[in-house]
Amino acid sequence: MRISPNHPRFRSLETRERLVRGFQAGIVAPQGLIAHGRGEAFDYLFGEITPKSSQAAAKAAAALLLSARNPVISVNGNTAALVPRDIVRLAHSVHAGLEVNLFHRSVTRGRTIASLLKRNGASHVFGVNVSSRLRIPGVASPRRIVDAQGIGDADVVLVSLEDGDRAEALRRAGKMVIAIDLNPMSRTSRAATVTIVDNIIRAIPELVRVTMKMKPLSKSRLSATVTNFDNERNLRRVMKDLIRYMQGWSQS
To answer: Is there a contact between 95 and 32 (Cβ–Cβ < 8 Å)?
Structure first.
C-alpha cells in the first residue's frame, strides 16, 4: 500500500506497513504486530517525538557502547524489519556484534533475519549457529538461548523491544544492558543500565549520530559520562516529560 507523505501520520502508517511486509517475509512474528501496537500507544502519548530526557540516555548509551570490551546488539524480528540498515551502521560504528534473538524462535526465521542484516552490510551475525548455543539462567522463554561467542561473551548488550525477564537475567549475569523501550514503567526499562525511552525508528539513527560524535572522546571522558548517568533518575524525568505533554494536550 502506498501512503502519501502528506498524510499527517505518515511515519506511523509507514512503520505499520514495514512491519506487515516483514511479517509477509517471515521476519516478524504475528505476535510482534501486537507488541508494536502497545509501543505505538506510548509513542502517541509522547506526541510521537523523542522526549528531551532521552537525549541524556542516548549519550550514556553511546559512551557505554564505545567503552565496552565486547558490545553486542540483540536483534529481534521487529527491529530487523524496521531499522536493518541503521542497526548495522550502529554495530559498525562501535565495533559491536549482531545477534538474532527471538521469543518465537525458528531456524528458518533466524536465518531469514540474519540474511536481511547481511544484505544491509553485516559481515557476521551471531545466534544462528546451533553448535555455539548457551542458556541464560532465569529466563523461561526461548530468548534464554544465546550465542556463547556473542551475547554469552558480551559485557554490554543493547536490547530493543525486549522481555523484562531477560533484561533482568542479563544484569544478574554481570552484563551492562542498554534498553530501547517506549514504556518507562516496564521491567525492562527499570532493569536496564541505560534506558532510551523512544521509538526505535528514531532511537537507532540518533544513537548512530551521537556515537559518531563521541568517538573521538577519551576513555576517561566516556567512563565519566556513564558514571554520571542515573537510569532511575532519568526515568523519573521521562515520566515528567510524559505528564507535561499530556497536560498540554488536555489544555489545548
So the answer is: no
